[in-house]
Amino acid sequence: MANLTGKTAVVTGSTSGIGLAYARAFASAGANIVINGMGAPEDIEKERAAIESDFKVRAIHSPADMTKPAEIAGMIALGESTFGSVDILVNNAGIQFVSPIEEFPIEKWDAIIAINLSSAFHGIRAAVPGMKKRGWGRIINTASAHSLVASPFKSAYVSAKHGIAGLTKTVALEVATHKITCNCISPGYVWTPLVEKQIPDTMKARGLTKEQVINDVLLAAQPTKEFVTSEQVAALALFLCGDDAAQITGTNLSIDGGWTAE
User: Fold this and answer.
1) Do 234 and 255 meet the contact criterion of CB atoms below 8 Å apart?
2) In which element (H, E) is residue 41 found?
């Protein structure tokens, strides 16, 4: 396992789901953590305190709004001023909306592109100078099987995730000689609050029951017929932070139960 003692990880969208699993995985390897995201203050504090008590590292919360470039830069600056560096950046914040394209609300398109794609650009832009100066860094972007294939009614999400795959490759090439890697992880359906929340919209859009959505829409795409777990995704991210993964860069790593093999 990677030894991240003395390093700092910033993980966006990490108050629940995959993001929280990332934060806990990095903390288990010794990294200090900046979590970010929305939620009830008491819930966020509970998760922040649990990271500190479970793994004996330091953890802080940044309330940075992922639609605001200045706040994203401020989150990176907060990590650097609190812990002395930001060595690992995980761009994980994401939202979803399901609708036929002719009815897709323009403001939902704008929000999804901002949070799922542009926020990664702003975070990387702010973090790379410090990584270059220290001669080490790991940038991990949460993409999706939808960075490789499409599904109907998800025009904004699929566009953003395809964009993340392209951004990942470009950044990897730019930082390749600085001992900084940039990769994206493309999970299939992971059982998270984000997936749970889109079930009612999909039921409505397709005229299906909850069980039909889970079995005939979500898991239909995954040959294993099982959800990916947040912990499995986090374990892959942790591997990418280790020395054994130093030559893995610019890649899109699928963890999707075989979905994109078809």
Assistant:
1) no
2) helix 41-55
Known catalytic residue at 157: yes
Range with the poorest average pLDDT among 41-45, 123-127, 146-150, 220-224 = 220-224
137 Cα distance to chain centroid:
16
CA distances from 81 to 33, 60, 77, 135 (A): 13, 12, 6, 18
Q: Pick the catalytic residue: 109, 157, 189, 259?
A: 157
- Where is 44: in which H helix or E strand? helix 41-55
Distance of alpha carbon 216 from alpha carbon 104, whole angstroms? 23
At 24-65, the pLDDT tens digits run: 999 999 999 999 999 999 999 999 999 999 999 999 999 999
- Pairing between β-strand 8-11 and β-strand 180-187 as defined by DSSP bridges: unpaired
Spell out the domains of the chain, with CATH numbers in brackets. Answer: 8-188+228-254 (3.40.50.720), 190-227 (no CATH)
